[in-house]
Write a structure and sequence with these properties.
The protein is of the alpha+beta class. The protein is 23% helix and 39% strand.
């Protein structure tokens, strides 16, 4: 089984909230780096985190999975759909996966775009006040 296959299985089980099956894609010592720089270590810890945080109204649109020719890395572009009570989120995400010699995922890094949030004060890319639009080199601006 190649890197793309294991990543596709990861998302299939995650979307279905099949925790035991998801665990079969993860190395026992897997490291998960979240979008806030948070780090989880170990399969059991990662699965407990997912059980506690993934809502029942959940899904992923896996748009693309690309594996490196040597099979040790894979990248995925995903739109994650979550609902917590009345709040519905649709997050555009990128995942980086390291695949161990045993063919299991040994590292997961999660990145997401959140233009609706602006922690750096730059203005979202969709805003007229965005950092990019206010610092354009276009002479017409």
């Amino acid at each position: 089984m190649g890197a793309v296959d294991i990543v596709e299985r990861f998302f299939s089980h995650l979307t279905a909230r099949e925790w035991e099956e998801l665990g079969t894609t993860l190395d026992k010592e897997v490291v998960r780096i979240g979008p806030f720089g948070d780090e989880l270590n170990g399969r059991a810890v990662y699965l407990d985190f997912l059980r506690a945080t993934v809502p029942s109204d959940y899904g992923n649109d896996v748009l693309r999975v690309i594996g490196s020719p040597d099979g040790v890395f894979a990248f995925a572009k995903v739109t994650e759909h979550l609902r917590y009570g009345e709040e519905e989120l649709h997050l555009d995400e990128a995942y980086s996966f390291d695949i161990g010699e045993d063919g299991l995922i040994c590292r997961v890094e999660v990145y997401w775009q959140t233009p609706q949030f602006d922690p750096g004060g730059f203005g979202s890319a969709t805003s007229d006040e965005s950092y990019a639009s206010s610092n354009s080199t276009d002479p017409a601006s």
